[in-house]
Amino acid sequence: MHISDLTEMLIDFRDRREWKKYHTPKNLALSVAIEVGELLELFQWKKDDEILRELENDDYRSRIGEEISDVLIYLLPLAHECRIDVEKAIVDKIKKNEQKYPER
Ligand SMILES: [Mg+2]
């Protein structure tokens, strides 16, 4: 499955519920930030070694997976509403970073 397939699923889910009116770029960008905050809460106050230990716990990993999904569930429609081809944008950015940060 490609990113474009996921975006299509999300847009279809949204449109079937008549939620498009809420999906302005600003609302979606705010929602991405809110969900990133929820993701960060799962790491808040924990030390790196503590997090690595907790990642052995299926429930903890599942909660992280849900928040990562929530971020993308808003991020992909944000890109869609901004008419950005995410796959192309990522490839372009990787190429730009390859120029900016040459291999050693
Ligand atoms: Mg969430």
Total beta strands: 0
Low-confidence stretches: none
- Return the string of H and E elements: HHHHH
CATH class: Mainly Alpha
Provide a count of the helices: 5
| CATH level-four homologous superfamily name | MazG-like
User: Quaternary state, please?
Assistant: single chain
Bound molecules: magnesium ion
The CATH architecture category equals Orthogonal Bundle
Q: What overall form do the CA principal axes indicate?
A: globular
Mean pLDDT: 97
What structural class do you assign from the helix and strand content? mainly alpha
Biggest beta sheet summary: none
Total discrete domains: 1
- How far apart are the termini? 34 Å
Rg over C-alpha atoms, rounded to the nearest angstrom: 17 Å
Beta-sheet strand percentage?
Answer: under 5%
Structural account:
The chain has 5 helices and no strands. It has helices at residues 3-16, 25-41, 48-54, 58-81, 86-100. It has a single domain (3-100), classed as Orthogonal Bundle (Helix Hairpins), CATH 1.10.287.1080. The longest helix is centred in the last third of the chain and has 24 residues, at 58-81. It is mainly alpha-helical. Bound molecules: magnesium ion.
